[in-house]
Amino acid sequence: MLKFIARHSTIFMPFCALIGFLFPQLSNAVLPFLPQVLFFLMFFTLLGIDQKALLKKISSLSVWFFAIFQAGIFCAFVTAIAYIFGARGDLLLAISALGATAPLFGSGAIVNAVGFDALLAMAKTISATLVMPLTLLVVLWVLGASGATLDFALYFQRLLIYIVAPMALAVVVRQVVPCDFFSKIYPKVGQFNVILLLSFPLGLVGGFRATFDKSPLQSLLLLLLACVLAFTFYFGAYFLYLKKGREIAIISALVCGGRNVLLTYTIAMPFLGAWFLPLIGALQLPMFSLPLLGKMMAKKIP
Q1: Which of 16, 60, 164, 253 could staple 202 via S-S, CB 3.0–4.6 A?
Q2: CA end-to-end distance (rounded Å), the chain
Q3: What is the pLDDT of residues 35-49, one digit of tens each?
């Protein structure tokens, strides 16, 4: 059963989002456990990566170009387009803040689920996460209320818990566990990691159901906007990197398409306006449908 779910995880991701929407009590019950799940998701993903190779990849200029593109250039692009189409006030702030948001910490696991190696995805995720506070702070200064700022102490605490600690623990485990035994057991660990990943679309979509119950039409319009944003992020990165090969293009698209909205909400919650929370709730279904799209596109690679 575990093997079947892992093999078809890209189908189960949007399915779990739908389940969370249909059963909001289940979604809300899962939500409080996501921080703990995220730690183990990061740890199991990083466990399968050579940490020296990861640090070397993070130090490359191409990875930092992606970080600036993902959290900076794309933010300016979607903000400008939204402004041209009439978005103002809190809605423009929500769109811009979403554009400045770093990739999902689970991007490596998503890329693994599609069938690619997680090394490049994790390098791009970590670098973009380090760039994110600068672009998000600019967004808050330009579009937010007077005195808007970020909780930098909480931000760096999140970096320590969800990036530094799992990396350090992965190094220790790989040093202690014999290579032959590790190679034998890690494929099973990788399958379990997919189950952890599925808890996120399930747990994050419950808030959108509350918005839908209050105003179905408004929620459907938000869902349409979220779909436009998710596919813009995805295909923007895909076509930018297509000249480097379809595999790198799909990996970059998956990383760019997934947004760590909980991190943004946690560190800037009082200043994000009234539309940010409903918009990130609407984003969950299209965002977790992107891995299925990525897998379908990956099958066409010769």
Answers
A1: 16
A2: 30
A3: 888 888 888 888 888
Model-level pTM greater than 0.85?
Answer: yes
- Tens of pLDDT, residue by residue over 64-94, are 999 999 989 999 999 999 999 988 989 999 9
Q: At what angle do helices 216-241 and 206-214 cross, to 10 degrees?
A: 140
Query: 134-192: per-residue pLDDT in tens?
Result: 999 999 999 987 777 888 888 899 889 988 998 899 888 888 888 887 777 777 777 77
| Tokens at 220, concatenated | 């459907």
The alpha carbon torsion through 95, 254, 149, 96 (nearest 10 deg) reads -20
DSSP for the chain, please give it.
Answer: -HHHHHHTHHHHHHHHHHHHHH-HHHHHHHGGGHHHHHHHHHHHHHHTS-HHHHHHHHTSHHHHHHHHIIIIIHHHHHHHHHHHTT--HHHHHHHHHHHHPPPPTTHHHHHHHHTS-SHHHHHHHHHHHHHHHHHHHHHHHHHS-TT----HHHHHHHHIIIIIHHHHHHHHHHHHS-HHHHHHHHHHHHHHHHHHHHHHHHHHSHHHHHHHHH-HHHHHHHHHHHHHHHHHHHHHHHHHHGGG-HHHHHHHHHHHH---HHHHHHHHGGGS-SSHHHHHHHHHHHHTTHHHHHHHHHTT--
